[in-house]
Design brief:
This protein is an alpha/beta fold. It has a single domain (about 5-210), classed as Rossmann fold. The chain has helices at about 15-25, 45-55, 100-115, 135-150, 165-175, 195-210; strands at about 5-10, 30-35, 60-65, 120, 155. Strands 3-2-1-4-5 form a five-stranded parallel beta sheet, with helices on both faces. Strand 2, helix 2 and strand 3 form a beta-alpha-beta unit.
Amino acid sequence: MKMEKRAIILFSSGLDSTTVLYYAMSKGYKCSCLIFDYGQKHKKEILSAVKIADSAKAEYSVIKINLPWSNDALTSKNKEIPVHKHLTKTVPSTYVPGRNTLFLSYALSFAQSINVRAIFIGVNSVDFSNYPDCTPKFIEAYNNVLKVLKTKIVIHAPLLNLNKAQIIKLGTKLNVPYKDTWTCYNGCEKPCMECDSCKLRAKGFKEAGINDPALD
């Protein structure tokens, strides 16, 4: 089979993953988005992801993952989304154990099945919530796993060492539709502006000197 310049995008409709989608497209990749329904308390990010993928004319699949043991604030009905006065320097309750490992494993299986060598993920280790699976060491370790598996697949994390302002400036140049993105951990009509994800996004737009179109 002839190798196409194709890429699989781990896609949530958030600021980072949408920027990565448009970044990959700008590099000439034909993109297939994997959108994960892993038991989030709301479906707004999934609906937003489908809308953006459609608009970008990117292929997409919505993958259902069942985590019956969930005990984190994003998926457990027994835990509230935390509101921190200051961003925590420890792993917060919104961390979903193994999430990116699961997502990348699905992407690996998909990539090998359709003969694709590039997987893009929008992790960021500068302005982030201290998730251990969003770090350079994690991406390096997973790429090492791929080598052990004797594949030619590579995990690309182009935003890994950028702050949110740099990501937003990059995305603005790429005409990323930030108005349609959904970053908030809550599924309200408008972003809550209180959760860690909203605060990091607001920090980024402020430092970039750009108004967040999702708040219009």
